[in-house]
Amino acid sequence: MTTLTERIVRYGELRPCKTAFIDAHTPGSNQKENFTIIGGGVSESPDQHVHIRDTPGFNIGAAGQPPKCRNSLHSHTTAEVFFVLKGRWRFFWGRNGDAGEFIAEEGDIFNIPTGIFRGFENVGTDYGMIMAILGGDDAGGGVTWAPQVIQEAAAHGLVLGNNGVLYDSKKGQTLPHNVKPMPVLTEEQMAAYPEVPVEAVVPRYVARYQDLMALSGKKPAKVIGTDALLKDKPGFEVDFLSRNSLGEDVITPEKHVVLMPMRGTWALKVSTSETVLNAGDTCLLKPGEAYTLAPSMTGEASLYRVSETDDPAGATWTEA
Predict the structure, then answer these.
(1) Which N-terminal stretch is annotated as signal sequence (predicted)?
(2) Per-residue pLDDT at 140
């Protein structure tokens, strides 16, 4: 049985991987840093460090990027949810990334629909960080890259095998004899990926930080779930807490819970253990592990709480 300390990943202790994905050498994307915090994540590199290997029905990760750095177009078959911890980010989607886009500010959360190609870019002036919630225990099994991403990566020495592993010719690596290159989607296959207009995405899949602060004045705001602001069943639920959202009552979750502070410091007590969570920290709580949680200092305080559900981590995109 792991201790509470072993299930907390501090923001300052996050270990990045700069070779996590197929576009690691592609100009404009080659400064990305990928973080796998809970679960196996979606990294294609053996260099990826995993902080907590438990898989509570979903994965937690993060992406850090300097200004003007982008993550290339890809699609997921399970949920991909981001909230902006630091900076200003442009999310875009469609086969060529031009079907729709919007700008996310700090604290905003985006439940990106499955089955569409998406990417994101740091459009701020400083290093930015977005925190990720990925559906399912095996989040890496459902990632598909747009054809142009695979082709451009090959031109810069990176080939993705059909075993999901990257091979870098700059390091003298070649595909093993029993591994073939990941096939590129055909035009017919690409036609199955919708070009979704922005007006069909933002109202249904985006929640703004200031709105959540207003909604969480006396109790937690339900962000993602069947009866939440963003109605969905991605295999987990998300709610949002601010200063006055919780009292002093003891909470005993029936399933896994992950606490992810956005602003301020939060005092957490589990049994006889007490600690303080800061912005960017991640804490995994086990089923039946009773806890109390409250802001520990004055000033702005906010926190995203992710709870495991029995729902399958399936498709989220449906026609309006």
Answers:
(1) none
(2) 58
pLDDT over 80 (residue 320): no
Tokens of 108: 């905003």
User: At a CB cut-off of 8 Å and minimum separation 6, what does 7 contact?
Assistant: 52, 54, 283, 284, 285, 286
Dump pLDDT digits (tens) for 86-109: 999 999 999 999 999 999 999 999
Q: How far apart are CA 43 and CA 143, in angstroms?
A: 10
Q: Quick one: pLDDT band at residue 314, thresholds 50, 70, 90? A: low
What is the three-class DSSP state of 4?
coil
The tokens for 224 are 């993602």
Q: What is the per-residue pLDDT across 102-152, written as a single tens digit (0 to 9) for each? A: 999 999 999 999 889 999 999 999 999 999 999 888 765 668 999 999 999
Q: Which residues contact 164 (CB under 8 A, 6 or more apart)?
A: 44, 140, 141, 182
Contacting residues for 92 by C-beta, under 8 A, at least 6 apart: 98, 100, 101, 118, 119, 120, 121
Q: Which amino acid is at 239?
A: D
In the chain, the domains with their CATH numbers are 5-205 (2.60.120.10), 212-308 (2.60.120.10)
State pLDDT tens for residues 2-43.
899 999 999 999 999 998 889 989 999 999 999 999 998 777
Q: Which two tokens stand for residue 137?
A: 């225990």
Contact 268, 303 (CB under 8 A): no
Three-state DSSP at 13 gives helix
Q: What is the CA radius of gyration of the chain?
A: 19
